Amino acid sequence: MTSTESATNTSQTLDQRLAEGAIPTAQALSYAITLGEALRGMHDAGQVHGAVSPVNIMVSGTRLELLPAAARAGGVTPYTAPELLQECPADARSDIFSFGAVAYEMLTGRPAFQGDNPTALAEAISHAVPPSSGNPGIDLFLPMCLAKEPAARFEHMQKVLLELKLLAVHARRAEAPARREQAVAALRSELQQIETCLASRLEAHEKTASDTGRAASEALDTLREQLSSLGAQFAAAQERAEQRPSSVEQTIEAIGSRVAHAEQGLDALRQAFATYAEKTVADLHDLGESLKAQGAAIQLARKAQAQTDNLVEGVVEALDLLQSSVLE
User: Fold this and answer.
1) 37, 64, 149, 234: least buried by Cβ within 10 Å?
2) Is residue 166 part of a domain?
3) Which long-range contacts (CB under 8 A, 24 or more apart) does 205-214 make?
4) Residue 217: what pLDDT?
5) SS3 helix, strand, coil % of the chain, rounded to 5?
């Protein structure tokens, strides 16, 4: 029998899982496809299961395993095909009916047929029509499994699987806009964060540059004042030199030393300012390159999302064409 990996210690039967409520559509369709593949393998081998029900199905995460049927001791269940109530032998189409009842319950969270006692349950199986699942595509698919007359059901599991895969593709396609909106929202949020960060960093750099420029301007003004003072002192020294020729040489040397020291301080300040300006330009360049890279990454993500959407649409069209060919 075709099945997924053996159940692990965390596995549970499908009826235990269904006690928690309906299974999300995409997961339920995936489970149904796995179950259908298992039944198809049995039918292709000339066998039937005869007792498909949640108690004979193990699930673990995304995996599902159809267990062999226990000894068929009779007894009506919500998954018993109508013809089996008339003591007809189980066949592939009775398995398809049971499969449809299980699929209905996975998708809706409620049994397709209910009754307070075996007689009422048998009456519901034989005559009642399950309520709508709320999904038009599923409501077209399930009646072809749950038809009262075996001849009105799908002829074989291959056709069931084809319809299921079309439904799964359609479900993924329907979910794509929501995922796309989530991706766009995430990209917008990331862009906003990047813009905020860049604005903050640019503001900080601008403030630092402004503060540095103001400090440099104040320092230059101070140096100018010092130079002016030195000039005045030099002039005064010259006057004193005329009066005291013996001290002229010493005074000139002292003033020259102070002027040289002031010029060295001015040169150092200019060099520091030039270095900081160069670093600021480099940082701004790095920020620009980072912004370009982020923009390129965002465009690539958008392009990848668009390509994914196109691929899903192409698969849907291909499956639609295959379905039309099979029907013809």
Assistant:
1) 149
2) no
3) 205/280, 205/283, 205/284, 208/276, 208/280, 209/276, 209/277, 209/280, 212/273, 212/276, 213/273
4) 73
5) 75, 5, 25
What tokens does 186 get? Answer: 């995430």
Q: Is the pLDDT of residue 5 over 70?
A: no
Neighbours of 291 (CB within 10 A): 15
How many angstroms separate the Cα of 42 from the Cα of each of 4, 67, 157, 158, 181?
Answer: 14, 12, 10, 12, 43
CA–CA separation, 305 and 184 (whole Å): 10
Q: What is the pLDDT of residues 178-209, one digit of tens each?
A: 555 665 566 667 667 776 776 777 777 777 77
* CA–CA distance, 109 with 103 (Å, rounded to integer): 10
Joined tokens for residue 298:
């965002």
Q: Which residue has the higher pLDDT, 247 or 67?
A: 67
The sign one gets for the Cα dihedral 55, 59, 60, 64 is positive
In single-letter form, the type of residue at position 136 comes to P
Residue 268: give the domain boundaries: 178-321
Pair 187, 301 in one domain: yes
Whole-number pLDDT of residue 325: 59
**Which range among 22-26, 195-199, 227-231, 321-325 has the greatest average pLDDT?**
22-26
Please provide the size of the chain in residues.
Answer: 328
Q: What's the total number of domains in the chain?
A: 2
Beta-bridge partners for 66: 57
Q: Fill in the amino acid letter for 172.
A: R
Block residue for tokens 């806009």: 177
In this structure, the strands spanning 57-60 and 12-13 are antiparallel
Tokens of residue 96, six digits:
């398809």
**C-alpha–C-alpha distance, residues 276 and 281, integer Å:** 9
* Residues 95 and 40 placed together within one structural domain of the fold: yes
- Summarize pLDDT for 288-311 with one digit per residue, the tens: 777 777 777 777 766 766 566 556
The verdict on 196 and 146 lying in the same domain is: no
CB 4 within 8 A of CB 64: yes
Q: Does 192 lie in the same domain as 265?
A: yes
